[in-house]
Specification:
- By secondary structure, this protein is of the alpha+beta class.
- It has one domain (5-119).
- It has helices at residues 22-31, 71-83; strands at residues 5-8, 10-11, 15-16, 35-37, 44-47, 55-58, 64-66, 87-90, 95-99, 102-106, 116-119.
- A 9-stranded antiparallel sheet has the order 4-5-6-7-1-8-9-10-11, covered by helices on one side. It has a two-stranded antiparallel ribbon with strand order 2-3.
- Strand 8 (87-90) and strand 9 form a beta hairpin.
- The longest helix has 13 residues, at 71-83.
Length: 120
């Protein structure tokens, strides 16, 4: 079973404020020569420059989901999120940010847990 992290504007607590539109995601992906569209699914793109070719998959109002995550994939996700004015959020409502120490996982509510560096 895989775990997905999303490039999103969605909050599991507050709902969707302004969803990422399919047209906006497609424009970003099509402008990036490292992506190749998956012909079987609208809004799905393979990151061809990565050895594992992770799939960036459009999940409607939730955003773009990625199930394979390593340091380079997280950095690619942060780059896309900045272009879409979005954030990275996991299935369990945790958030991610890029720090000088690597990718940090944290929660909006400090009672949910302390930040952890998960990859560099």
């Amino acid at each position: 079973m895989s775990y997905t992290v999303f490039i999103t504007k969605f909050s599991w607590v507050n709902g969707v404020e302004t969803p990422i539109q399919l047209e906006d995601w497609v424009a970003v992906a099509e402008a990036d020569p490292e992506f190749e569209a998956d012909p079987d699914y609208i809004g799905s793109y393979l990151w061809k420059s990565h050895p594992r070719e992770p799939l960036f998959d459009y999940y409607g109002p939730i955003g773009i989901g990625v199930s394979y995550r390593d340091g380079p994939t997280f950095r690619k996700m942060f780059s896309i999120a900045s272009r879409l004015d979005a954030i990275l959020r996991g299935e369990m409502n945790e958030m991610y940010r890029l720090t000088e120490n690597g990718v940090e996982q944290f929660y909006e509510n400090p009672l949910d847990g302390d930040p952890d560096i998960i990859c560099d």
